[in-house]
Structure formats: structure tokens, C-alpha cells
Amino acid sequence: MEFRKSQTIYMQIADHICERILAGIIQEGERMESVREMASQTQVNPNTVMRTFSFLQEQEIIFNKRGIGYFVADDAAEKIKTMKREEFVKEYLPELFKMMQLLDIDFEELKRIYEQSKKAAAK
Amino acid sequence: MEFRKSQTIYMQIADHICERILAGIIQEGERMESVREMASQTQVNPNTVMRTFSFLQEQEIIFNKRGIGYFVADDAAEKIKTMKREEFVKEYLPELFKMMQLLDIDFEELKRIYEQSKKAAAK
Amino acid sequence: MEFRKSQTIYMQIADHICERILAGIIQEGERMESVREMASQTQVNPNTVMRTFSFLQEQEIIFNKRGIGYFVADDAAEKIKTMKREEFVKEYLPELFKMMQLLDIDFEELKRIYEQSKKAAAK
Amino acid sequence: MEFRKSQTIYMQIADHICERILAGIIQEGERMESVREMASQTQVNPNTVMRTFSFLQEQEIIFNKRGIGYFVADDAAEKIKTMKREEFVKEYLPELFKMMQLLDIDFEELKRIYEQSKKAAAK
DNA sequence: GTGGTCTAGACCACC
DNA sequence: GTGGTCTAGACCACA
């Protein structure tokens, strides 16, 4: 797994897990890979994975069965969506709107850029 | 001045200065506050302000006259716009589109949220 | 069976067994459920039950007849009471008194909380 | 500093800090020792202290000023009391009452043991 | 086998 | 100087 350096590794792993849960690749209630497994998969120190898991457990997205491993919580996908949406609206969008105003970009232009990027991705 | 913890302080100060330049509060060619003045205004370590100035100087948005102080470059506003726009399109928007897809938010909804936030700000 | 996470599972099972002995639900001299039975009842790994039994055997609360199973010792109830009382006075109470002092709780209030919890349990 | 092995070191340090705050030894708003200072004082690895601080920050008992250090929150003492009290009532007391019933100890006897332990401590 | 804690030591960005 | 992240490796209790 490749990591951007603009964000901490353990959070990138957390995001990656969340995306897999949202996409249904990991089912709710299912057992996660063990800390050591995920560490060797991602080529990362087990402590770093441990940190990811601790974070996700705090967010109640996964939970722990002692001696067995970590499991995806029943309402994990819902929790993730709520969390991400809140983050999006409260922290991300204000900056977006500010930037749009600053750069004189309106929603039409935004949409146009979006269509272009979709075409570019389709190649 | 209040700072978000998601970004470094010196960059937040840089952004703040850029906004003031774009808004015409600080004129091109005009002398900036001194490092010490700005440090005491923003309740921040002078080194941190120094770092902001160094960054803006690298971007050629301000320039230094030795022994006198920092001055806003003649084409500062234009430079800022170009810089911000590039940053916006290349780094900000891809993440935006990804988030929108992940959270099932379309442009209509985006606009709706925007209108709401404008009302909230108007209070 | 539900387990608190503040204590190990095998000790919680041990406590549960002790309580049943004190309450006379399991008679002294009587044979215990087998490790496997208890494991499936409590939804727990047989090794964990085994650990409980080993612990209780160390305390001479139960004993083993090879090939037959575990049996409650004749003076089990007495042993448990002695053990628990010692544990209570030496390890539990000092912490209780410290907490009471720290939180400004006196015996009157303790009693009051007790009465309340009894009412709540009576529902 | 000496540590019991029945609890994790980082939590014992956290408790110790909380007690010092409650006792007024560390004032609210005051800066804490740095991670490295406290690590060398307590003869513990800096990472362990870091863990303590992270925990206390989550509990909003201390907060961080970037590049400067950790500071005691304004309502730290109140937060600690609330937290400890809740923990005491919900997790500690139920066990106490159960034990008292099991061991036939009433509040009079509890008080008597308390007075004794106070005398013993006074020596 | 599992997670959890701890140590030692490195490197980094930031103040 | 500050905290924060990461690695490597050890040890432990528990299932």
C-alpha cells in the first residue's frame, strides 16, 4: 500500500478501511484481519495498525473481542457516513465556499470541471 | 486570532494575509506590519510569523527590503489567484468529488447547503 | 453470559461459580459441569473455562478426579468467604476509602446511593 | 515513581496527574511538564507519557498548544470529579454492595473498618 | 493464536 | 525547545 505523506499513515489506513466498509467489501459483523496480518499486508509496523484500530474502536466503527480480534460494528457504515458527512459540512465546505468566492468560481463552473475530470478518469 | 488545529499556524496566517491582499485591505506595494507587530497581534511566536513571511516571499507575494521590512509585491493579487486556483483544482477538487460520491451528495444538494450556510452567516 | 471488559473473562466465570456455591445452587461435594458444557453455556473458549477451573483448584475450592471431572470441595463456601473477605479488606476497601475522600462522599451518602440502587434493581 | 503491576503505567500516571490537579498542586490553566521532562522524572519512556497525555486530552482534562506544550484545562478539576464519580457509582459501587451482601458486612461494620484504617494510617 | 503495553531510538514539522 | 509519528522488537495476559 502506498501512502501520501500529507497525512499520517494510521489515518490513511483508517480511511481505507472505512471505504472498504462503505463499499461492502468488509461486511458488518465480520472479523477484521488481525493486527499482524494487516501490518504485513500494508508493509507497516504493527503498532501503527494498532493505532488505526484503536482510533476506529473509539469511533465505535469496530469493536474488540478479547483474544479473538476486531470486528466491524453492526451500524458501522451508518456511523462512518454520519461522521464523514459532518466533517464534510463543517470543515470542508466552508473552505470550499470561501475559495469559490475568492476565485470567482460558481457552481456551473464547478460542475464543468467535474465533468472534465470524470472524462479524464474514464480514459 | 483563532486557529484551526487541522492546519499549521503559519499557513493559516499566510492565508489570512492573502485574503486581506485580495480584498484590497493591504495594497500592493504597501509595507507589511513588522514580524513583531504581527506576532503580538496574533498572539503567536515571532518565529512563526517569520516562517509565514519566508513562505510568502518564496511565493513572491511579498518581498524584503533589508532593514526596512516586508512589502507586498506589485502583482501579488494576481499571483495569489493563480496559486490558489491551481491548488484548488489540483488538490482540493479531486477530494471534493470523491467525498461527494462517497456521501451521495450531488451538486443540487451542495448548492442547497451553500444557501443555508449563507443564511446562517447573515445572522 | 455477558462480560465486563474491565476484568478477565476467566475471573468473571470464577466469581460466578463462587456465587452459585455460596448461594447453595451448587452443593459442596457435587460434580461441576464439564469444561465443554460450561464453555458452550457461557459462549466462551474451552481454554478459558479450563483456566477458571485451574484457578479454583489452586484456591482449593474445587478438586479434580482424573477422568471424571471437577468437584466442589467440602469446605468450599467457607474458603470462598475467607478469601473474598481478605481480598475485600486488603485490596478493595483502601481504594474505596481513597475514592470517598477524593470525591467528598461520606457514609451517609454511600447509604443513600445504596438505597437508590436497591430501588432501581427492584423494578 | 513506583508502579503497581495491576494497572497499566500510563493510566497510573494519568491518575497521579488527576490527583495533583484535584489537590491544587497543578493549577488550572498552568502548563504541564513537557513529555520528556515527565518521562525522565517518572523513569518511563516518553512514548508512555505521550500516551497518558493523549488520554487526558481526549478526556478534555488537558489541552495542547502546538510547539509549546500541554496545559491544564480551565474546568479540569470539575471534569475529573464528574468522571471519577460516574466511574465510582457505575462500576465500583455495584461490586461493593454485592460484596457486602455476600460477606454479611453492613454499613456500621464498614465504618468501623474505616476508623481503624484511619488510625493505622495516622501512626 | 489474539491484542496490549512498554522500551529504545529515530525523524519530522512546528514554535 | 515542543509534540507527533513511526519503526523494531520485546514481553505479557488472555482465548
Detail the topology: elements first, then pairings.
The structure is a homotetramer of 123-residue chains.
Chain A: H1 9-22, H2 35-42, H3 46-58, E1 62-65, E2 69-72, H4 76-103, H5 107-122
Antiparallel strand pairs in A: 1-2
The structure holds a DNA duplex (15 and 15 nucleotides).
CATH class of the largest domain in chain A: Mainly Alpha
The H-level CATH homologous superfamily of the largest domain in chain A, spelled out, is: Winged helix-like DNA-binding domain superfamily/Winged helix DNA-binding domain
Lateral arrangement of strands in the main beta sheet of chain A: 1-2
Q: Look up the CATH topology of the largest domain in chain A.
A: Arc Repressor Mutant, subunit A
Structural class of chain A: mainly alpha
- By CATH, the architecture of the largest domain in chain A is named Orthogonal Bundle
Topology of chain A as a string of helices (H) and strands (E): HHHEEHH
